[in-house]
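Appendix B: a complete holo record

For completeness, this appendix reproduces one full record from the ligand-bound portion of the collection. The bound molecule is adenosine-5'-triphosphate. The inputs are the chain sequence and the ligand SMILES; the output is the full three-dimensional arrangement of the complex, encoded as structure tokens. No fields have been trimmed.
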Amino acid sequence: MPEQTDFVEIRHAQKSFGPVEVLKDISLTVKRGQIVGIIGSSGSGKSTLLRAINDLDPLTSGEIWLDGVQVNKTLPHRQYEKHINEMRQQVGMVFQHFNLFPHMTARENVTMAPKMLKGLSKQEADKLAEEQLDKVGMLERIDYYPSQLSGGQKQRVAIARALAMKPKLMLFDEATSALDPELVEEVNLVMKRLAEEHMTMIIVTHEMDFAASVCDRVLFMDKGVVVEEGPPEIVLKTPAKERTREFLRKHIEGAK
Ligand SMILES: Nc1ncnc2c1ncn2[C@@H]1O[C@H](COP(=O)(O)OP(=O)(O)OP(=O)(O)O)[C@@H](O)[C@H]1O
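The structure of the chain with adenosine-5'-triphosphate bound, as generated:
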């Protein structure tokens, strides 16, 4: 097992969109190699929290740290751009709707960032694309365009694209929600394999069984608050409504 150090730290994250507070004082640490699942009702703030980690949705207040460096630093514009590009290169993100470039083949989707941002030669980038697409079982379709791929295949290419930057952390935002049920498993298998390789991952998902099978810890979110956090076998066994009720009861008692 890799050394267990605090690797991602979210300190008192608070986020408002106008008058609406969508994240309310969330703190969380993820150790290197840990897999944390985030589960919660629609609109509870899961995506916003995930996007805050690489400052795509900047927090209103609070701090995000990755491997000992503060991500959401206040810096003069140019310095911030340089800093955030460096930070984002260390974080792979996979979205619900794949976000592949439609006019590029799988190979080109995977090689674009390593060529542009890391200066890899065509030969080096091609080798990398072959490795990463092989890892997700997509080598045979390396020269296919996204329109020629199924949803599950597109998502596997999207994962290969994120992995090609050799990230320290992978964020998955409902990576299987847009897929037909029969295509979910092939993407889950890729994520399970990454888990076996001890990739640090934060996974927003609606799939309780999947979370239970891969996550070391699960957070249950409701209305911008982490209602419960712990091992999946504990967090996932209580029905959502009961958890929310229990949380509110504790808060009301605490306020008395
Ligand atoms: N850019 C934005 N501007 C205004 N409000 C926003 C914005 N992004 C998100 N919100 C609001 O913030 C709240 C939390 O949204 P978020 O997408 O984080 O929830 P979620 O838990 O990921 O939901 P879902 O499971 O439906 O994806 C919602 O009420 C949403 O409408």
